[in-house]
Amino acid sequence: MSRERPHPRWLWLAPVFFLGAVLGGVALARLDLRNLFGVVLVALGAVPLLWVLVSALWPARAERTCPACGGVHLERLDPRSTHGLACRGCGWRDEAASAWLLAEEEGPLEEIVLEQRGRKRRIAPVDSARKPG
After folding, report:
1. How far apart are CA 104 and CA 69, in angstroms?
2. 3-state class of 67 per DSSP?
3. What is the Cα 99 distance to its own chain's centre?
4. In this predicted model, what pLDDT tens digit does every residue of 31-66 receive, in sequence order?
5. pLDDT on residue 86
6. For the chain, first and last CA: distance in Å?
7. Digit-coded pLDDT (tens) for 11-21
8. Domains of the chain
């Protein structure tokens, strides 16, 4: 997919935003806010914590909307792979598209990942503390 470029009419606003940022910085410097350092320090600690909390409570969901027809019919091409999408509604296909979130919603990914890496799943974990003897 190609990214849309901003419309040329809006490009003239960029210098206005830059000038506003500079004027905002000058205004903050002239206000002599003695507690600004503490506020910024708390914000720098709170924002990442809030980000983690929001990400944990509202995890990402797989997008099943077809880019061609707009229907909610996307599915994985191969149930043993995390690549390739197809639409049941219109027949659209993309072999290179990531199907990771769809695969994650459908079940555990361990088998798929190990198969793609050419490894087999171990039945029992190996005890590395035991010395050969």
Report:
1. 24
2. coil
3. 13
4. 877 777 888 889 999 999 999 999 888 877 788 888
5. 92
6. 59
7. 788 899 999 99
8. 13-57 (no CATH), 61-122 (2.20.25)
| β-pair partners for 40 | none
Vertex 42: Cα angle to 48 and 19 (nearest 5) = 85
> How far are the Cα atoms of 4, 13, 14, 104 from residue 8, in angstroms, in the given order?
12, 10, 11, 40
Angle at 106 between CA 104 and CA 108, to 5 degrees: 55
Contacts for 130 with CB less than 8 Å, ≥ 6 apart = none
CB 104 within 8 A of CB 79: no
Mark out the alpha helices in 12-126 (DSSP H runs): 14-31, 36-57, 100-106, 110-116
CA–CA dist 40, 31 (Å, integer): 15
